[in-house]
Amino acid sequence: IGGPCEGVLMVLHPYEDAGQIEVLPGLYFSAETQHVTTVLERTDEKRMRFFVGYSGWASGQLEREMETGSWQVAPASIERVFAPAGPLWRQIKREMALMSITGRVNPKLLPSDPSRN
User: Could you give the CA distance from residue 59 to residue 45 in angstroms, rounded to a whole number?
Assistant: First the structure.
């Protein structure tokens, strides 16, 4: 269940023939009933993520929030979309922390075991 705005059932999936929008290469978004039904009828693969509700922004609001650093952004991948949420968020947080450190510090200067620094 998503954000505070009500919406239709939406799904992310790997089926090009049922996709309305290609989000990433090989990953599609669908919200129209006929496309969602097609995805639900598939039994060959269960890589699907369903969503109801969404968050919305006023024109330019998200861009301004991005410029002020209100959001942390990580690269998207199909593997991340279908990964279990708990381990995924921990992994992304570690990657983001490392990117933050390496963005300010020369990686060649980092010790092999920072905990011993």
Answer: 37
Cα separation of 36 and 75, whole Å?
26
CA distances from 94 to 23, 38, 58, 74, 88 (A): 25, 37, 31, 11, 10
pLDDT of residue 107: 57
CB 26 within 8 A of CB 14: yes
Do the beta carbons of residue 54 and residue 5 sit within 8 Å?
yes
* Helix, strand or coil, per DSSP, at residue 27: strand
Its pTM stands at 0.70
- The model's pLDDT over 4-39, given as tens digits with 9 standing for 90+, comes to 777 888 999 999 999 999 999 999 999 999 999 999
Host H or E run for residue 101: helix 85-104
